[in-house]
Amino acid sequence: MSILYIQIKLDYEREPEIAIKVVGESGTPPKSTLDPEILCWCEDNNFILVTNNRTSMPVHLAEHIAVNRHSRTRNFYPQSKFKY
Q: Is the pLDDT of residue 77 over 50?
């Protein structure tokens, strides 16, 4: 079980009204959607983006914020990156 899954599960148990969506699901942008469009969709639909994309997403997020858009984004770092 990943750290991300545990956090989402705990939040969902406290707030069962939380909507968890995955890109490509019904009502979300398709999987081929570019990062800037995903950021806009999340902002427009009041979603927090959770991603492990540390290559292109930080650049697009900076551009998104630079044009006075807003975003609630969390980077997901796989558990294997941490030393316990």
A: no
